[in-house]
UniProtKB/TrEMBL annotation, chain A:
Protein name: Peptide ABC transporter ATP-binding protein
Membrane topology of this protein: Peripheral membrane protein
Organism of provenance: Gordoniibacillus kamchatkensis
Compartments it resides in: Cell membrane
A molecular-function term among this protein's GO annotations: ATP binding
Keyword Cell membrane: yes
CDD domains documented for this protein: ABC_NikE_OppD_transporters
Primary localization class, coarse: membrane
Residues covered by the ABC transporter domain: 6-257
Sorted UniProt keywords: ATP-binding, Cell membrane, Membrane, Nucleotide-binding, Transport
UniProt xrefs under Pfam families: ABC_tran, oligo_HPY
Family: Belongs to the ABC transporter superfamily.
From TrEMBL, chain B:
Residues forming coiled coils: none
Xref: InterPro entries: AAA+_ATPase, ABC_transp_ATP-bind, ABC_transporter-like_ATP-bd, ABC_transporter-like_CS, Oligopep_ABC_C, P-loop_NTPase
Keyword presence, RNA-binding: no
Keyword set includes Cytoplasm: no
NCBIfam families: oligo_HPY, PRK11308.1
Family per record: Belongs to the ABC transporter superfamily.
Domain of life, per lineage: Bacteria
Protein's UniProt name: ABC transporter domain-containing protein
Length: 327, 322
């Protein structure tokens, strides 16, 4: 596949805790094509954020470490890349936006200084040019009065405006890949609609691929072309958004889709997946979802199924799909 | 005609803004600004709105967890706003609250047993033996195991903690439960468990809920009637079905169109509102929404619209509907 921008294979990211070494990411397989929007969905603790931090090599070490697997960006292996090389990539070719814009912006620097920082570093631009470029960036992310806002401090801006500033910082060097970790979770619905609209527009205009991490299936349905569903540190299903919503193969994906309240359909009672989300590392044998799965067979509790092609471009990790082929 | 359990009339809750050395009051944050509605027995009344619209303050002012500035709240024929402390305590037996964050609302130093026994101790309604039986029964009702009674809140997951909070609210057999964003801190698969539990409890115990949330699809699923709030005011109030089918107020229309639909095959028209919600300390003159309203005209800037009933049974506060 030559249009693949980033490919993750069997990624293992472990954290050292009181309970020993805990695998937060336990064999993730993912790829992102150039210019696409990939959704990564899952509930808290499924390892979706840790996966994204692993790509950027922003896992605090110790207690964390990338214990195995590979992350290939274009033709380069990132898991073994030197810090110097990562610094050249970060903010330049791969950039990231986080959930809480207030905690990820520096309160002591003006908006303009923060946007210009990466640009000046990577492009070796002059101060004067950087300022003009910064104002242009603010304009592109839909901030009114950019000439004035450029000299404002983050606390003077609303949540939606701060997230726009974050996006401007992330996109100022025209990266190939933007990792957005729950970018709209802290925002209100009407502001969320503005930000999603902006991200879609920028994706169309600049061709920046987006890895959109979220827990909201509604956001995935509206934004993404492909989606990967994660559960307990693994990808359990992956494929085109329309296929996954029309014909989900993994019981977890099915349960997740059925358990969200819908505005467009009348539902008497919601479906609910029994049990709780397991804490990372608590299940070591068999399919991670088996204890909550209503179709679980003996085999499921013993052996972990592979992530296998279920349909064209659609992979799932479940014995129900693959059981017969292997006896 | 159905009986009204709760009547809220012209409720206002203002928080003073103090500045300077003398801490003089220089203005007010009008968190709840003239809100009226009534809740029927056995129904679920939803309050929806974005952050800062005053929905939580409204919920708490009704229970007088926050002292309202003006207005009247009548619960079950008794005036809550005029009640003395001891009267209020008796009334609270019948009106309880469940909070958003089940971690913050349960005392981490108390075992679940102690948390659940507390309402009986405070109100002195049951002896020691009876209390123990009741606590066990409560655990069962909310789907937890009685053997977990001596554990502490941190040993439970978010969903289980919310079950404990619900059990505590249920302890004294209340008539009304105010649920303030009870599922927004929970994962999707756990959220539906809690919603189903709350529905089941409503059927079994004939509870009335005031359900406060920002998630429009949760509100639609759960409530019978819905009030939409914007900057401290109710802009629209209607039965669930007509509200979602045919929203009247431009804000409701925008809010509904902005919510993402979890179905990639649905294409919908989006109304994207410009700008942000103004600060409630400095709400616009006239209609609070006129600064962002796509249909605003001259009158909206001057005159505050009142909540009026339209032909279809909607109540809407907008000059577009005379």
């Amino acid at each position: 596949m030559k249009d693949v921008l980033l490919e993750i294979r069997d990624l293992q990211t472990h954290f050292l805790t009181d309970r020993g070494e805990v695998p937060a990411v336990d064999g993730v397989d993912l790829y992102i094509r150039k210019g696409e929007i990939l959704g990564v969905v899952g509930e808290s603790g499924c390892g979706k954020s840790v996966t994204s931090l692993s790509i950027m090599k922003l896992i605090p070490q110790p207690p964390g470490k990338i214990a195995g697997g590979s992350i290939r960006y274009k033709d380069e292996e990132l898991t073994t890349a030197k810090e110097k090389r990562m610094k050249m990539l970060r903010g330049n070719e791969i950039s990231m936006i986080f959930q809480e814009p207030m905690t990820s912006l520096n309160p002591l620097l003006t908006v303009g200084e923060q946007i210009g920082e990466a640009y000046r570093l990577h492009r070796k631009a002059s101060r004067k040019h950087t300022r003009l470029y910064t104002i242009d960036m603010l304009n592109r992310v839909g901030i009114p009065r950019p000439e004035q806002i450029v000299d404002e401090y983050p606390h003077r801006l609303s949540g939606g405006m701060r997230q726009r500033v974050m996006i401007a910082i992330a996109l100022c060097c025209e990266p190939e890949l933007l990792i957005a970790d729950e970018p709209t979770t802290a925002l209100d619905v009407t502001i969320q609609a503005q930000i999603l609209d902006l991200m879609k527009k920028l994706n169309r205009e600049t061709g920046t691929a987006i890895m959109l991490i979220t827990h909201d299936l509604g956001v995935v349905a509206e934004m993404c072309s492909r989606v990967a569903v994660m559960y307990a540190g693994k990808v359990v299903e992956e494929g085109p958004v329309k296929d996954i919503f029309r014909d989900p193969r993994h019981p977890y994906t099915k349960g997740l889709i059925r358990s969200i309240p819908r505005m467009d359909i009348e539902q008497k009672q919601l479906y609910s997946i029994p049990g709780n989300v397991p804490s990372p590392g608590s299940i070591t044998q068999g399919c991670r979802f088996a204890p909550r799965c209503e179709h679980a067979m003996d085999k499921c509790h013993e052996l972990m199924p592979e992530l296998k092609l279920a349909d064209y471009d659609h992979r799932s990790r479940c014995w129900l799909e693959q059981g017969d082929a292997e006896g | 005609m159905t009986k009204h359990v709760l009547e809220v009339e012209h409720l206002k809750t203002y928080f003073p803004i103090r500045t300077g050395f003398w801490q003089r009051v220089t203005g007010y944050v009008k968190a709840v600004d003239d809100v009226s509605f009534s809740v029927r027995e056995g129904e679920t009344f939803g309050i929806v709105g974005e952050s800062g619209c005053g929905k939580s303050t409204a919920g708490r002012s009704i229970l007088r967890l926050i002292e309202p500035t003006e207005g009247k709240v009548v619960f079950d024929g008794q005036d809550v706003t005029e009640a003395t402390d001891s009267q209020l305590r008796d009334m609270r037996r019948n009106m309880q609250i469940v909070f958003q964050d089940p971690f913050a609302s349960l005392n981490p130093r108390h075992s679940v047993r102690r948390i659940l026994e507390e309402p009986f101790v405070v109100h002195g309604t049951a002896g020691k033996k009876e209390r123990q039986d009741k606590v066990l029964e409560l655990m069962e009702v909310v789907g937890l195991n009685g053997s977990q009674l001596d554990r502490y809140p941190h040993q439970f997951s978010g969903g289980q903690r919310q079950r404990i909070a619900i059990a505590r609210a249920l302890a004294l057999n209340p008539k009304l439960i105010v649920a303030d964003e009870p599922v927004s801190a929970l994962d999707v698969s756990i959220q539906s468990q809690i919603l189903n539990l709350m529905q089941e409890l409503q059927r079994n115990f004939g509870l009335t809920y005031i359900f406060i949330a920002h998630d429009l699809s949760v509100i639609k699923h759960f409530c019978d009637r819905v009030a939409v709030m914007y900057l401290g005011r109710i802009v629209e109030l209607a039965d669930k079905a007509p509200l979602y089918r045919e929203p009247k107020h431009p804000y409701t229309q925008a809010l509904l169109s902005a919510a993402p639909v979890p179905d990639p095959f649905v294409q919908k028209e989006r109304i994207i509102l410009e700008g942000d919600v103004p600060s409630p300390a400095n709400a616009p003159q006239g209609c609070a929404f006129h600064t962002r309203c796509p249909a605003a005209f001259e009158r909206c800037k001057q005159e505050r619209p009142v909540l009026k009933r339209t032909a279809e049974g909607h109540q809407v506060a907008c000059h577009l509907y005379p």
